[in-house]
Design brief:
Number of strands: 2
Order of helices and strands: HHHEEHH
CATH topology of the largest domain: Helix Hairpins
Strand order of the largest sheet: 1-2
Structural class: mainly alpha
Low-confidence stretches: none
CATH architecture of the largest domain: Orthogonal Bundle
Strand content: 5-15%
CATH class of the largest domain: Mainly Alpha
Number of helices: 5
Number of domains: 2
Largest sheet: 2 strands, antiparallel
Radius of gyration: 40 Å
Length: 263
């Protein structure tokens, strides 16, 4: 967009200088300079178009979408000091799920080792030979349930270790998500400040360009001063668009840090 506007402006200036040069108001060298400026803007537009086509091709390849969303804007969350991570943040929800799963596994292992050995003591009648008296014998039975402490200790230790690791990972995830949110909030505020400066600069350069153009039309200024004013205005316009893009990126980063899922 900016390259196209700059080319149109250069062509308009070249046409105007051509008329004034033919009328004898300006030297032919001014027309040559204007033509060179037009060619420079044409090269710039071609380069910008190539970069745009490459970017679109990359976007289509990565997303599978045939075109950019319309409108290509994101509404950011409010970048205030009270900004906090939402409870349904995807990263927090994922880490909480991992902790819950590890806790359930630990509880399952713990419940499996609570069985106690059973000692049974009883009497048993032993019939002797014909005519002999029967004998009474003591019977001792020991029942050892599967999963005693000696057997389940390794499994329980592993479950406890896994649970502790998941809890530590959850804490680290929360810290990192909070850090990313803080940085994203600062990015939004900084992008807004930079955009304000770029807007003021663009206004000043446009006002200066109007004055220089009027002076050039009246013969009070030369073509070099006009081209310099145009270049400054063009750079200010470009910087303004870049600051707007950066504001959009900052909004996207904030939404990502907040766990907002694009629709």
């Amino acid at each position: 967009f900016q390259a196209g506007a700059a080319l149109e402006s250069a062509r308009a200036l070249e046409q105007d200088i051509g008329k004034r040069s033919a009328a004898g108001e300006l030297a032919r060298v001014d027309l040559l300079v204007a033509q060179q400026e037009t060619l420079a803007r044409e090269v710039e537009l071609q380069a910008a178009q190539i970069e745009y086509d490459r970017a679109i091709n990359t976007y289509v390849h990565l997303t599978g979408l045939p075109a950019l969303p319309d409108p290509l804007v994101e509404t950011p969350a409010r970048a205030t000091d009270e900004l906090e991570l939402p409870p349904d943040h995807p990263l927090l929800a994922s880490s909480a799920g991992a902790v819950a799963q590890a806790r359930a596994e630990r509880d399952r292992v713990q419940s499996g080792r609570r069985g106690n050995p059973i000692l049974s003591l009883g009497a048993k009648q032993a019939r002797g030979a014909r005519g002999a008296e029967s004998d009474t014998a003591l019977q001792l039975e020991v029942s050892i349930p599967f999963g005693l402490a000696s057997q389940s200790a390794p499994a329980l230790a592993g479950a406890e270790r896994a649970y502790t690791e998941r809890v530590a990972e959850q804490s680290l995830t929360r810290l990192e998500a909070g850090r990313d949110l803080h940085q994203a909030r600062l990015g939004v505020l900084g992008a807004a400040d930079a955009l304000g400066v770029a807007q003021r600069r663009q206004t000043l350069t446009q006002d200066a360009l109007k004055l220089v153009r009027r002076a050039f039309d009246l013969g009070e200024s030369d073509l070099t001063a006009l081209l310099l004013a145009q270049e400054r205005a063009r750079q200010a316009n470009l910087d303004l668009e870049l600051r707007r893009l950066e504001q959009g990126r900052a909004a996207a980063r904030l939404n990502q840090a907040m766990g907002v899922v694009p629709e």
